[in-house]
Amino acid sequence: MERSYLSIIRTNFMKQGHLLTSLGRSLLQRHCSTSLTDPSYRSSPHFSGHIPPDGVKKAFSLSGGPGGQHVNKVATKAEIRFDITTADWISKDLKAHLMKKYPYRLTKTNELVIESAKTRSQTENLTDCFTKLRNLLMECAYELDYLNRKPSEADVKILEKRAAENAKRRREEKRRNSDKRRDRSAVY
């Protein structure tokens, strides 16, 4: 069974009694940057893909749920938050879109809050928080870039062709239903 690089690092550092040593911090910083191997990411003027680690506040707390004594002793639940209004690493349009699309994730002071208690590891939960935040920002940037753009001439032609086909299909269906009703009342 192949173990992930992150789980190997985590277990080695937990054995030594360190949570985030310099290597752990560099690993965390790597997870704050866009993965160059991620094919789904496209560069956007609204979000570069990089989340500055000092641009977010990190906090850890006790994770709820089952887990026996471990859950009561170790603060593994990770939470990251950042003030949308002062974040200079995302565009103003993206900030407005985030505030409109995710009002339930915002505090009264316009801080966006992301939490994770998915695993028993603090480091993995923190990485999961950054991944969730990056995916959320990339999704909003995609919506701003692609879904709100004006359709090209090719797009318009395709949409007109589809509308014509749908109208033709609807007329044929109406004609068939009309013929069916007419045949029911025909006297032989």
Tag the structure with descriptive keywords:
3-stranded antiparallel sheet, 188 residues
Q: What is the CATH architecture assignment of the domain at 57-64 and 72-148?
A: 2-Layer Sandwich
Query: Looking at the structure, what is the overall shape?
Result: elongated
Record the strand order, biggest sheet.
1-2-3
Q: If you compute it from the alpha carbons, what radius of gyration comes out, rounded to the nearest whole angstrom?
A: 26 Å
Can you give the mean pLDDT?
A: 78
CATH class of the domain at 57-64 and 72-148: Alpha Beta
Enzyme class: hydrolase
GO molecular function, one term: translation release factor activity, codon nonspecific
Biased composition (Basic and acidic residues): 174-188
InterPro entries: Mito_Release_Factor_mL62 (IPR052104), Pep_chain_release_fac_I (IPR000352)
Quick structural gist:
With 188 residues, the chain is mainly alpha-helical.
Report on the structure:
The protein contains 6 helices and 3 strands; from the N terminus they run ααβαβαβαα. By secondary structure, the protein is mostly helical. Among the domains are: 85 residues, Double Stranded RNA Binding Domain (2-Layer Sandwich); 29 residues. A 3-stranded antiparallel beta sheet has the order 1-2-3, covered by helices on one side.
Q: Topology of this structure?
A:
Layout: H1 5-16, H2 22-32, E1 57-61, H3 69-73, E2 77-83, H4 92-101, E3 111-116, H5 122-147, H6 153-184
Antiparallel strand pairs: 1-2, 2-3
Helix pairs in contact: 2-5, 4-5
